[in-house]
Design brief:
By secondary structure, the chain is an all-alpha fold. The protein folds into two domains: 101 residues, Leucine-rich Repeat Variant; 150 residues, Leucine-rich Repeat Variant (Alpha Horseshoe), CATH 1.25.10. It is built from 15 helices and no strands.
């Protein structure tokens, strides 16, 4: 029993220390500026990404010999439900230090966090899912079909996760069939955060096979939201971008 109490207490103590560090580095001016990038009500301390990564690194150096994935997951379940973005992001960054221990159970718990709005903005989703879920998919290809079911989940953050999880994989030319399939499934959405994520993901898919991306865009052109299309063609030469914009335009 004593061991269980100690195990449960440690993440809560570390959570309090992390919050104290974030509060000490708070910058109200930077926090106000960060809010401009979000339509949702997102609260900030006002730290930079390098500052958060430095704090994460310090805590990981302290904890890496005594913690396992279980403690890192417990820390996330303490800090993710809070309002401050940096607390969410720092707990995720620390969790990702233990990603080699990720399993199918981790996959399910991450989905539950997303569905519960623990990651309630695009930035929190994008800290967690490309590296975390992308790593899981790469190690467990059987999860790819499961991920496709996320595209119709009622929660927008689960749906965004199904897209951005493939960004680092598509960038390396991996799972391109799945990436394009998920992109196609998202064409009907009118959610701009999903449209942008879809364009980002298929743009990355094009890095290793530009002809395939062009063929995909021409095939589905009129069905593709223009926001998605503009993101997807960013790396084409200007003349090709203009041609693709014209060729995929919906008929009046």
């Amino acid at each position: 029993m004593a061991k269980s109490v100690l195990t449960n207490a440690a993440p809560r103590k570390i959570a309090a220390e992390i919050i104290a560090r974030l509060e000490a580095g708070a910058d109200p001016v930077r926090a106000a500026g960060a809010r401009r990038y979000f339509k949702e009500q997102v609260e900030f301390y006002g730290l930079t990404a390098p500052q958060m990564r430095a704090i994460c690194g310090e805590f990981h150096n302290r904890l890496k010999k005594s913690w396992t994935l279980d403690e890192a997951m417990a820390l996330c379940e303490i800090l993710l439900p809070g309002k401050k973005f940096e607390a969410k992001a720092t707990s995720i960054l620390l969790l990702l230090k233990f990603k080699k221990e990720f399993s199918r159970e981790t996959f399910c718990r991450i989905k539950a966090w997303l569905a519960a709005d623990y990651c309630d903005n695009w930035a929190a989703v994008d800290v967690l899912c490309p590296e975390g879920l992308g790593f899981l998919l790469d190690r467990n290809p059987a999860l790819v079909e499961n991920m496709k079911t996320w595209t119709v989940h009622p929660n927008r953050w689960v749906r965004r996760a199904s897209i951005v999880a493939f960004v680092p994989l598509a960038r390396r030319g991996k799972y391109l069939d799945a990436a394009y399939d998920i992109g196609r499934r998202m064409f009907a959405t009118d959610d701009d955060l999903l449209q942008k994520a879809t364009g980002w993901m298929i743009r990355e898919a094009g890095k290793t096979d530009m002809p395939r991306l062009e063929e995909f865009l021409l095939k589905h052109g009129p069905a593709i939201p223009r926001t998605t299309l503009r993101y997807a063609i960013e790396r084409f030469p200007e003349a090709s971008r203009k041609r693709l914009l014209a060729a995929t335009k919906k008929a009046r």
